[in-house]
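Deliverable D4.2, example record:
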Amino acid sequence: MCTPWYQFLYKTDPATYFGKVACPVLVLNGSKDLQVDASKNLPTISKAVKAGGNPHVTVKELVKLNHFFQESETGHPNEYASLKETFSPTALTVMPTWITTQIK
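Output generated by the structure prediction step:
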């Protein structure tokens, strides 16, 4: 936690970078993600992108998915290795559907 990388992470405000994104944005977060809280991060990211003048942001909280977009019971990191699913079919469906709507 004391390495330069972690210190940079703690001192950096991601809103600065999200506010500079000009292309359409898809933000996905699992509801069971214990590392990145969907209820706090999704609205914050959306707000930052829009504050930069980009109205093209879509946010989705994916039910039962953990940090790695695997369906899980608890979302706890000690559960990761025991899950057979590598990546949720739900997440894999959301992404190409969103991309298709962007290119129409």
